[in-house]
Amino acid sequence: MLFSKASIFTAATTLAGLVSAQSKTVHVVKVGPELTFEPEEINAELGDKVQFQFQGGFHSVARSDFANPCVPLDPATANGTVGFFSGDMNVKESDQFMPTFTILVNETTPIWYYCAVVGHCEGGMVGVINP
Q1: pLDDT, average across residues 7-16
Q2: Closest CA to 117 of 89, 76, 81
Q3: Most buried in the list 43, 52, 120, 122, measured by CB within 10 Å?
């Protein structure tokens, strides 16, 4: 079976694209147990994932914007930006599992987030992807 240089190049380019798409980075952000996201800031590329790992306590992760850091992103004013909310996670020391919540980075503008549990954002539990 004979292959042309063009078909070999096309196959190699396609394979490289698949490998590159699969080798994107997963950034881990630890949530809690105190009023913290660790780290508070990360830099991520398009196609990377951010996995929030709930370490302990009662916390959540919700998207906001810079102007209203402790308010969930309003779809009516977000100009097509998609919000997210992990739901409330109550992790006890005796738990045998660690809940996670993962998002796909599909934009290069800053992605602001906070803990939506009453008083946590006001206590400084905020973070940003691509500040």
Answers
A1: 42
A2: 89
A3: 52
CA separation for the pair 90, 84 (Å, rounded): 18
pTM: 0.79
Those residues whose C-beta lies under 8 Å from the C-beta of residue 109, and which sit 6 or more positions away, are: 130
pLDDT at 1 (0 to 100): 44
Where in 3-93 does DSSP place strands (E)?
26-31, 37-38, 41-42, 49-54, 57-59, 62-64, 89-91
Query: Domain coordinates of the chain in residue numbers?
Result: 24-129
* Rounded Cα distance, 18 and 7, in Å: 16
Contacts of 23 (CB under 8 A, 6+ apart): none
Q: Using one digit for the tens of pLDDT, what is the confidence trace for 43-95? A: 999 999 999 999 999 999 999 999 889 999 876 565 667 789 999 999 998 89
Distance from C-alpha of 93 to C-alpha of 97, rounded to nearest angstrom: 10
Measured in Å, how far apart are the chain's first and last C-alpha atoms?
53
